[in-house]
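Collaborator request, handled under Task 6.
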Amino acid sequence: MKEPADPTKQFLRKTVPSLKKAIFQLIIAGIFVGIGILVIAPPDWEWFGLKSKTEPQPSPTTIKLVGGRKTLWDWMGLVLVPLTGVWLGIKLKTLQEQAEAERGQIEKEKGEKAEQLAKEQALEAKARAEERAENEQREGALAAYLGSMSDLLVGQRLSALAKKQAKSVLTEEEQFLLNAGMDVIRARTLSILRRLTDREDPKLTDGARKASVLLFLYESELIQRKELATTEDQQTSLTETSLLKLKGADLTDTQLSNTNLSRADLSGADLSRANLSRANLSHARLSRANLGHVDLSHANLSDAKLSGAHLNHAHLSGADLSGADLSGAHLSHGDLRSADLINAQLTDAHLLGADLSHAHLSGAHLNDAHLNDAHLTSADLSDADLTSAHLSRTDLSGARLSGAHLNRADLSGARLSGAHLSSADFSAADLSRADLSRVDLSRAHLNSADLSHADLSHADLSRADLSGAYLSDTNLSGAHLRDANLSRAILFALDLSRTEELTQQQLKREEREDSPLLCNVDLPAGISVNRNRDCDRLPEVLHNRYPERFKTVEEAKDFVKQRRNRWN
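Structure tokens returned to the collaborator:
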């Protein structure tokens, strides 16, 4: 703490400038008073005492009276000097009183600060003492737990029974003893984990000692998945399972970075906010586990079982999830940047708003997955299965989707500019209002796809299958349509005048049923086809193909009429 300055020095520093200022003000005031007198009355230099007087010399017999006329200097000596002294004394006393008050205030504040500091130091000392006591209690509880576990495993022969079960079937008595021992171990494990957890303040949770408990169980082969001999219907078989189940175990905030938990069974455990960065969890079982806000960055989760797990807001950037089972998992708003999800199972997974930019998802199963508002920029989804996936408003710009299966997928409003979509399957997909500008859709399957209001400007649609597709208000300026299949496609309120390589043969088939339906279509120069050839048939076709959107033919007629009026 900074010590206050010496009071005497502080008083002088404040008083001397104030006195100088007061004297200066007094001199200025005197000057102005003098000037005022000179202006108001004619100067009497004799009265000012500035003119010499020549008085007649008195005769030897003349008696001179004491007194006479007083000059300005006389009056200043009689009145002004005493008044100035009085004023300066009052001013000096006032400044001294102010300095005393300030000195008292400084002393008071100094005392209060010292008192506050003492209280804070006392509280800190008390907190440290309580922390030491709590730490000692937790250390004692952990030591007692490990001691009891060693006694159960060695003294009660549970470890030997567990090893025996890996080779042959236990007797009924041995199986009963092993099951009873596992029940005791589970109860004591759950108890010690609760003892090391602070629910009110997660920062006070003892994540290091909780990790010690878990690693002890792992190294004792109690939570490792392995083949155990079991008997069912008098038939002996080997079943891959763990001896100890940790469903419901409180492993929140556990510090497990860089640990080896390969093949561990943590199904149903609560691992929220745990640090598992760079941990080895390959082939681990984490089904229905709570992994919200967990740090799994660069962790090895290859072939892990994570079905139904809660991974919302989890950090999985750079993680290896190749071959992992994430079906039905909740990964909303998770960070999966550059994660390896090759051949991963993500059926019906929830990835709303998740960041999968630059992720490797080739061959992944994402059918019925929820990817609305997700970020998949520059992600590799080649040959991935996205059948019936929900991808509305998803950012897929620059993504590689060559050979991907997106049939019946919802891609409405999705951003696909710069994506690689050659040979991708978009049959019956909803691509309305999607951004497909400048993309490679050569040989892509777009049959029965909804491309209304989509942006396909400068896209390569050569040899693409657009049979039965719905193109209304679609931007096709600069699009390449060489050898594109437009049979039975609906071309309504559409400008084709600026497309490239569109031929009359593509718009006029030998069989009328195979020809595309044209209504309010602007055609390129050189193509002599009626631009309103199928306006009369269009309402019935819309009702038959999209009964949910157009419930009756009359409703479809009203839609066509209104749209034609706006187009015209």
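The cover message to the collaborator said: "Strands lie at 226-232, 235-241, 470-472, 490-495, 517-522. The CA atoms of residues 41 and 49 lie 16 Å apart. Please let us know whether this matches your experimental observations."
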